[in-house]
Design a protein that fits this description.
It is built from 11 helices and 13 strands. It has helices at about 30-40, 65-70, 75-90, 115-125, 140-145, 170-175, 190-300, 300-320, 340-350, 355-360, 380-385; strands spanning about 20-25, 30, 105, 110-115, 130-135, 160-165, 170, 185, 390-395, 415, 425-430, 435-440, 450. α7 runs antiparallel to α8. The protein is elongated, with a radius of gyration of 53 Å.
Length: about 450
């Protein structure tokens, strides 16, 4: 028998040695009286004081006497014997004659004997074969292995037989009186041997069950480990993919900025050259204008007439001179084409959808008309596509209850309202036939509408 620790022998409620320890459904041990008081305080709804697991079945709560329900719980007699054995070996030892200190213990009689009583005990024919042990050498395990077994009807008599019909430990007197008609009376040791074998079979089955549970736990641990590895690999793949995409986008951004910078540099250089030409012309105009003004205001007539021919020819040439043309490099026709960028945005919203590969393969022929994915789909990606003014027709998910809302024969319509969150919102459509209704987007399987492309 394995040695029991002090904590194993202590009631978790009263913190005293276990008395009539009851085995709760969770296998924790609690004194019988403590179980009763615990349930009384909890209104018959209490759980184990250690783990809170339910003590009484729900079907038994509120039915019958509480003490009787607690008595129906199995009692751990083995622990009870250990507790009593431990008590018996602590403190002083007094002989059953109560006149001297005991030195021996008789396992058959379950009594302590002094030196004098031990000599008498060994000479009496009925007790001389009994097994005794020095109290100084006696251990709790030894004492617990030979517990006193009183008759169920006569507490002063030792039980020697077991009635299988009544499941009672009885003495010889009971066997010849109250149990005389019982067909199944056997020696306690013989019955215990059979019961031990039955318990061994149960233990073996529980060990098999425990091993199966352990194997399942190990399987789950393996699945968790493998799953973590797969999810990490997926994250790594996402990182590589998006890092590559980000690198491509960054390269393209830099190229576009470089092209813009080249255009800007060429534009500024040409503007600068044009400005320099204009500055030079301005200086020529100013010089000739100043000369002409001076001749007008202060030149003698003869001087004026002497210069007039050549000067007038030069002035006429300057007046007819055209201003420099606009720079060949301009910004007026530079625009950023966003149509492909918008398509890329939508593609980014659709990229990297997590799907079960088997399910995805099984639905390749039944995909959403909007996002191209197997149903069910959501709708946020649809918000990047649908807009007010789009032309639509009924979709493949059209319900019979919708009838001919879009006309008969079915026609087309225009989207008049789009909510901010299509996943929980509705698209409003004005049909060409005159009807107008709202239709759900991203609910159930797919969509009620499809674009008129």
């Amino acid at each position: 028998m394995a040695a029991a620790t002090t904590s194993d022998m202590e009631c978790p409620v009263c913190h005293d040695s276990l008395q009539q320890p009851k085995i709760l459904p969770c296998t924790h041990l609690v004194c019988r009286k403590c179980v009763v008081s615990w349930l009384e305080e909890a209104g018959n709804q209490g759980g184990c004081p250690l783990c809170r697991e339910q003590i009484l079945p729900a079907s038994d709560k509120g039915q019958g006497d509480l003490a009787s329900q607690v008595d129906a719980l199995p009692t751990d007699l083995a622990t009870a014997v250990v507790v009593e054995s431990e008590k018996a070996l602590t403190g002083s030892h007094v002989c059953s004659c109560e006149d001297a200190e005991a030195v021996l213990y008789c396992f058959q009689c379950s009594v302590k004997l002094c030196t004098s009583c031990a000599k008498t005990h060994s000479k009496v024919p009925t007790t001389q074969e009994h097994v005794t042990e020095k109290l100084s050498d006696l251990t709790t395990e030894q004492l617990a292995s030979h517990p006193p077994t009183p008759c169920v009807n006569h507490s002063s008599k030792q039980a020697e037989l077991y009635c299988t019909s009544h499941e009672e430990l009885i003495c010889v007197l009971c066997a010849s009186t109250s149990h005389r008609q019982c067909p199944d009376l056997a020696v306690i040791g013989d019955v215990a041997t059979v019961k031990r074998e039955e318990l061994k079979k149960h233990v073996q089955k529980l060990e098999e069950k425990e091993a199966a549970v352990v194997a399942k736990i190990n399987e789950i641990d393996t699945q968790v480990t493998d799953g973590k590895g797969k999810f990490k690999a997926m994250r790594d793949e996402v990182k590589v993919t998006f890092d590559g995409l980000q690198t491509s986008l960054e390269t393209r951004r830099q190229k576009m900025n470089s092209d813009i910078q080249e255009r800007e540099d060429a534009f500024l250089a040409e503007r600068k050259s044009c400005k320099l030409d204009l500055e030079n012309q301005k200086d020529v105009f100013y010089a000739h204008k100043t000369t002409a003004e001076r001749l007008v205001s202060s030149a003698a007539d003869s001087s004026l007439l002497g210069m007039m021919g050549k000067l007038m020819s030069r002035l006429t040439g300057l007046e007819s001179r055209k201003l420099p043309d606009d720079a060949k490099t301009t910004t007026g026709n530079l625009v950023l084409k966003t149509d492909k960028i918008n398509k890329v945005k939508k593609a980014v919203n659709d990229i990297g959808m997590l799907t079960d590969s088997a399910q995805d393969k099984g639905n390749t022929g039944d995909r959403c008309l909007w996002c191209g994915r197997p149903p069910p789909c959501e709708g946020p990606e649809y918000a990047a596509v649908i807009k007010v003014g789009d032309r639509v027709r009924r979709g493949k998910d059209w319900r019979p209850s919708y009838g001919t809302q879009d006309g008969s024969p079915p026609g087309a319509g225009s989207v008049t309202a789009v909510p901010a969150n299509l996943k929980s919102g509705w698209v409003r459509v004005q049909w060409d036939c005159g009807n107008h209704y709202g239709y759900r987007m991203g609910r159930e399987n797919c969509y009620d509408l499809k674009l008129v492309l």
